[in-house]
What does this fold into?
Amino acid sequence: MKRILLVAELVLIAFFSASCQKAKQIEPVKSETNYDRPLPPGQLALRKITNPADIPDFTFACYDLVNLKSAIDKSLNFLKKPSSSRFYPYGDITRDHAIASLESFKELLSTGLFGERLNQAIREKFDVYISVGCDDRGTVLFTGYYTPIFDGSMTQTERFKYPLYKMPQDLVKGQNGEILGRKTGGGTQPYPTREEIENSNMLAGTELIWLGDPFEVYIAHVQGSAKIRLPDGSLTGVGYTASNGQEYKSVSKAMLEQGKMGGQKLSLAAMIEYFKQHPEEVKDYTRMNPRFVFFQIEKGEPRGSLNEEVTPYRSIATDKTIFPPACLTYLATVLPVDRGGVISDKPYTGFALDQDTGGAIRAPGRCDVYMGQGDKAGSLAGRTYQEGKLYYLFLK
It folds into this structure.
């Protein structure tokens, strides 16, 4: 799970303003809804829309095309690698069909069409599929993720004493990158949990880089990547290379269940502030999540699980066991926008590419939107928690 710059503010402002009439389509989050509800056996996460009246109007998204072609190119880079064939066919969608869909959409963008004319061209050339969501009616919970920037050091110091680790030699991956477990004399066994790893100090000697705060380490684990500002002022990237294969469990959910923060929805910013006030509780809570992530040094911009660079608002993370990777999507939800330092939630419709995965993003009712790098992106990501609809587009 790997998670440069935010989409230009003026473009977003114009886009959100144009999209205001979409507000009635967005339902408020219902706390009792199980967004992680798994698919029934044998069912696909996508359903083809056969009634033209159910196909969304893409017009407003067709005015905001910033960075879309470059994001499509990154998906094409992935799909043209032989290794991507393991994800296809997806239902009646072959890998060649997915490639042709992206290439055709990119050609449309090169014609100079926009707005209503581009909307009409898309509707004529593309079939539209909708995620069945958590309720078989298309309800998807949209959350956000980002690439944090932390201070750190390549060597342990009195200030920087909390490590991120390299992938250990005894961790076994399958041919498709899945985590098989820990190597033993007779095969493999489940890799130890976060608590077992930390209590045993079994990873000593495999430290990659050192941070100054234990909760920053945990944030890097959850986000899947980070930028580290070294003592000389330079930035180096770290990105996901493997995990211990344990299932992700939400720390914020546990904190809410225990009445922390007044029982409100817990944003990442609120959690950071809480643990600054209660550093002695960091270990108790983070160990509730048995999943542990290993890192590697990463050059360039942050990359997603497809090993391609991710783009703010153009890259999303979904469950790649049930969704076709790298494909073109369309989001209809509510996302936060920063206007002069004031963050507010606005109705949002836009095209994005399915280019990443997430430890907490499982089932057809979940989607994570990449918000960018740094504290501002972190504020946007921490605020993103809205229902909406997720669509996929394929060439007819």
